[in-house]
Amino acid sequence: MRVIKSLQNEQIKYYARLKEKKYRDETGLFLIEGEHLVRMAIEANCLVTLLVAEEDIENYLDIIEEDKTIVVTESIINKLSFTKTPQNVIGIAKQNIVDKKEVNHVLVLDTLQDPGNVGTLIRSALAFNYDKIYVSESTVDVYNEKVVRASQGAIFKINIVKKGLKEIYRFLSNNDFQIIVTSLTNNSLYLEELKSKDKFAIVLGNEGNGVSEESLKNASNIVKIRMSDKIDSLNVAVAGSIIMYRLMEGYK
Amino acid sequence: MRVIKSLQNEQIKYYARLKEKKYRDETGLFLIEGEHLVRMAIEANCLVTLLVAEEDIENYLDIIEEDKTIVVTESIINKLSFTKTPQNVIGIAKQNIVDKKEVNHVLVLDTLQDPGNVGTLIRSALAFNYDKIYVSESTVDVYNEKVVRASQGAIFKINIVKKGLKEIYRFLSNNDFQIIVTSLTNNSLYLEELKSKDKFAIVLGNEGNGVSEESLKNASNIVKIRMSDKIDSLNVAVAGSIIMYRLMEGYK
Q1: Which one, A13, A130, B27, B212, has the greatest CB density within 10 A?
Q2: Alpha-carbon gap, residue A15 to A50, rounded angstroms
Q3: ipTM score here?
Q4: Chain B, nearest residue to A151 by Cα
Q5: CA distance linking residue B33 with residue B92, whole number of Å
Q6: Please, what are the domains in chain A?
């Protein structure tokens, strides 16, 4: 196993830059933190490098592969970590670049901004057996650490592809998907009234402004969830999860 | 209107202390930030004092009541604010102390720790016409600014009461509530199989550890949501909202 002790080491600096989207985009890599996420990355065959603090090597013997592991100091862990009291294990994972085409149940994120919402939706999509998530270019980066954390590792188990909305809708239309767009307009259909086809995509919009014109233009149906008039809207991760739940296979 | 310009003013220091739970508990007051929440507090008759930066008074003329308003500097707004670029309006609101007894649909939060989850659940409970939220003493303070923010002001429109779990279950049992406890055990009923009565309470547990023994002991039913085995669990705000949605009045 290699050992690195200097905070000034070039490789450590290279990893630290992965905190910025720009470098994640350039390298196709991202940082993950803690044992749970590292184990999920290994399972998904996405772990490139493992960094373990020397004090804690014994706790991670079962996941250490000699040629992939670097033993580091706690200061290095702290430099790469996003939390105040990090677990002593950090992974460098590779981003998913497969663009799975044989899919039936798709989630489309149109300009979502909150990383917690995006991570939670990835987690729900996996839980409800969706095949794929399309993420518009204007949506927060899914390899942002808050997204990864809120996804609870689901990010490693579901196909996620970033694309322009026009391209996303071209694929969905050409492949006969029912495009179910969520929007709180007066003439939206209630979710409870919607009949879904075998192949469908659910489109969710921005936290403050809702879905874009491009999404409305491509909608097969525009739906909303029935609720009290005492409040304007639901949290988008909640609304999206309720719709995914309701339309999931086997729903009765 | 009073004018305060000094950061050292005793009243401003008193308000700043409301950032800590201890002082919120002592005074029954809490801070709210931004026009949207202030307007909701006014509607709910909960606004005690309004602080407006002098530069922005003209934008808030319609909500300014002379005897409740203090004109302050931007530095004072910054001192009281939780955000980096605050709106120039902050409210001091009073906590809800009514303990509404004539209720049918109740949400119980047993030791939830994440303020975003708790705020989101308050928002969903209002959206789905629940009457009341019981919050265990071990749950994060609902007047924490992150809870208030995530609730989108729903905190002003639904009855929320903090109590010990024993006392909560005593009330629910004595009043013939069906107590529906969520837990991912093997012999939990699927939500889809559950029959709900007219009066019921949904109990949600801690993000990491689930519900407490006290809740399990008092359960009429233990339920879970059907999902893929590719992931352990849903986010608790999502799970709770799906259950509230499914069991809401008029659900078909």
Answers
A1: A130
A2: 11
A3: 0.94
A4: B235
A5: 9
A6: 2-94 (3.30.1330.30), 105-247 (3.40.1280.10)
Confirm if A121 and A241 have CB atoms less than 8 A apart.
yes
| Alpha-carbon torsion, ordered B236, B238, B241, B242, to 10 deg | -110
CA gap B15, B119 in Å, rounded: 22
CA distance A180 to A201: 6
Task: Extract the tokens encoding B35.
Answer: 């026009």
Q: Express each pLDDT in A147-195 by its tens digit.
A: 999 999 999 999 999 999 999 999 999 999 999 999 999 889 999 899 9
Partner residue facing B235 (CB), from A123, A225, A231: A123
CB-CB under 8 Å, A124 with B230: no
Are A120 and A241 in contact, with CB atoms under 8 Å apart? Answer: yes
Residues of chain B positioned with their CB less than 8 A from the CB of A237: 120, 235, 237-238
Chain A: residues touching B (Cβ < 8 Å): 116, 120, 123-124, 126-129, 150, 152-154, 157, 192, 225-228, 230-235, 237-238, 241-242, 245, 250, 252
Q: How far is CA B97 from the centre of its chain?
A: 13
